[in-house]
Design brief:
- The structure is a single chain.
- This protein is mostly helical.
- It contains 21 helices and no strands.
- It has one domain (about 105-575): Hydantoin permease, CATH 1.10.4160.10.
- Helices cover about 60% and strands about 0% of the residues.
- The longest helix is centred in the last third of the chain and has 33 residues, at about 545-575.
- Pfam families: Transp_cyt_pur.
Length: about 575
């Protein structure tokens, strides 16, 4: 049976032999199978896919991803900073080393070192105001004829008024990182600011000399006669002690802020401890019934009391507000800085002023000397054997205030010239204080304490009024480059403000009660204005508040257009 027959019969099919290498492969043609299907009548084949499914075979199918916009993407918003701003991560911020001399005087504090919290302000100011000067102010208020409740009211009002120059200076220093006297270049001009800067330096020198005179009385109380107003010990201990404390304060101020904040923190604790101890030791001198029975003083006396607190506590340190805020970080709130400032300045001043008033009201015959010679009067009132704690208290409080005086004096001197380093300015201020101590010693502590602070307060009041008002009006912070170099947004001389400073200072001195000796030239406007020089109104020393009020009013009435011109000049730079 052939192979074909075997396939037809369904039997096994033997395998075909494999072709050889030379055999050609052949394939049978496929068979055509007729299915018997024919198209319907009237139908026509369609071969174009678009006519069947609505789009071509090669076209993309519709998809949600096709809804993405195809235009140019909008720029992503990013935070903008000023051209002179340095952006740092928190890990890069660090305090300056304590034992490295601070270099920055005219230029702003570097951002890397601006890590101070608002709470630091408390310790810096507490150490300064927790002093025998605050006791003397309260004693002076009571000796003027104010009742105890009026002393509290007057002290609070004086502290609140003091916060105007101190608070605005603190906020300005926190924003710009520059000293108070440097910032005032915007108010008086880059060149015109030389005049108030010289006054600021002289005020620091004079206050330094007055503090050394108070220290001399503390030394006298411990080593020599304790009668109020006594000249001092005759063995040379007074000048040696004063020069020793001055040398220590100079070294600390030379190193600058980093060391100052650490030392002031220690002095604040030591001063508070000594003050509490002296209050406890002198508690036996208090007669509350007598103190509470003191009658109220007149309205003029209240006015004079506010002037006194403002002059001795606020204007004495008005040029130091920004100096202690230069190292604060800008991330916190300005309100926190103001609250800590209020606590550091107000709490010790209020407590000690009230205590001084209580002592005077309790010891009418001997307590009145507290107002002119606080250390000597306390030494005379306290039991024997407490002179050395009193000396320690006087030394601590004077050292704290003297450090700040020399530090601010160095910054004021550096603001006079870019070629004068801050350290050299500190030494210059210390030398000036030592030189002025000689005439102050000739005056005596009593006369110096009565006349010098009020005389110094007049130009400071005029300056701080002008500077505070302009700072309050400004819508933006000061421009650093314009403060450092001529030709910027700030004019060389702001003639309106500079003239006002000189005129208002002259008016203020003309409305001060003339003292004996060197201050007899004051009070020259009382008679031309029809005011009795010996009357109750003249006794309030209205020149201080008059100079300050005129200073505040001038920028508000005549300076706003000039300030807005400055800001318009700075607007293109800030927009970059």
């Amino acid at each position: 049976m052939s192979d074909r027959n075997m396939r037809g019969q369904g039997g096994p099919v033997p395998p075909e032999p494999a072709p050889g290498d030379d055999d050609a492969l052949t394939a049978e043609s496929p068979a055509v199978i007729e299915l018997g299907i024919s198209p319907l009548d009237g139908s026509a084949p369609r071969t174009a896919a678009t006519e069947i499914i609505g789009f071509g075979i090669d076209d993309d199918l519709p998809d949600d991803a096709d809804d993405v916009p195809t235009g140019v993407a909008a720029p992503v918003a990013s935070p903008r900073v000023a051209d002179d701003e340095i952006v740092l991560v928190d890990a890069a911020l660090a305090d300056e080393p304590r034992l490295v001399i601070e270099r920055y005087a005219q230029a702003p504090t570097p951002v890397v070192n601006r890590v101070g919290r608002a709470s630091r302000v408390f310790g810096l100011w507490f150490a300064v105001t927790a002093s025998v000067v605050s006791v003397a102010v309260g004693a002076r208020l009571a000796s003027l004829g104010l009742s105890l409740r009026q002393v509290v009211l007057v002290t609070v009002l004086g502290i609140v008024l003091s916060l105007v120059p101190l608070g605005l200076g603190t906020l300005a220093g926190r924003r710009n990182g520059q000293s108070t006297v440097m910032l005032s270049r915007a108010t008086f001009g880059v060149i015109g600011n030389l005049v108030p800067a010289v006054f600021a330096l002289l005020v620091r020198m004079a206050w330094g000399a007055l503090l050394l005179a108070i220290l001399g009385r503390a030394v006298t109380a411990a080593t020599g006669p304790t009668a109020p107003g006594a000249a001092g010990a005759r063995d040379g201990s007074v000048p040696l002690a004063a020069l020793g404390v001055l040398a220590v304060a100079t070294v600390i101020a030379l190193f600058g802020y980093a060391l100052i904040r650490s030392v002031q923190a220690v002095l604040a604790v030591a001063g508070a401890t000594l003050v509490i101890a002296m209050m406890v030791l002198s508690a036996g001198l208090v007669d509350l019934d007598s103190a509470l029975a003191a009658p109220d003083g007149s309205g003029f006396t209240v006015f004079g009391g506010v002037t006194l607190v403002f002059a001795y506590l606020g204007l004495a340190w008005a040029s130091s507000g920004a100096d202690l805020a230069r190292y604060q970080g800008r991330s916190g709130k300005g309100s926190a800085s103001l609250l800590w400032l209020l606590a550091g300045v107000g709490v010790p001043a209020l407590v000690l002023a009230v205590w001084g008033a209580v002592l005077v009201s309790s010891q009418r015959q001997r307590g009145a000397d507290l107002s002119v010679d606080p250390v000597g009067a306390l030494a005379a009132l306290l039991p024997e054997g407490l002179e050395w704690p009193l000396l320690l208290l006087g030394t601590v409080t004077v050292l704290s205030a003297l450090i700040l005086t020399l530090y601010s004096g160095g910054l004021a001197a550096a603001a006079l010239s870019a070629g004068l380093p801050r350290a050299a300015g500190v030494v210059l201020t210390a030398v000036g204080a030592a030189v002025l101590l000689l005439p102050f010693g000739g005056l005596g502590v009593r006369a110096a304490f009565l006349t010098v602070p009020l005389t110094l307060a007049i130009p400071v009041a005029a300056w701080s009024g002008l500077f505070s008002a302009e700072t309050l009006v400004r819508a933006s912070r000061f421009d650093t480059h314009s403060l450092l170099k001529r030709g910027g947004a700030y004019a060389d001389v702001r003639w309106v403000n500079l003239t006002a400073f000189v005129v208002f200072s002259a008016i203020g001195w003309g409305l001060l009660v003339p003292g004996a000796g060197w201050s007899a030239w004051q009070g020259y406007l009382f008679v031309p204005l029809g005011i009795d020089p010996g009357g109750e109104f003249a006794a309030t020393n209205p020149g201080v508040l008059v100079a300050f009020t005129l200073g505040l009013a001038t920028p508000l009435l005549a300076g706003i257009p000039a300030i807005r011109r400055q800001e318009r000049l700075l607007a293109p730079a800030s927009a970059r």
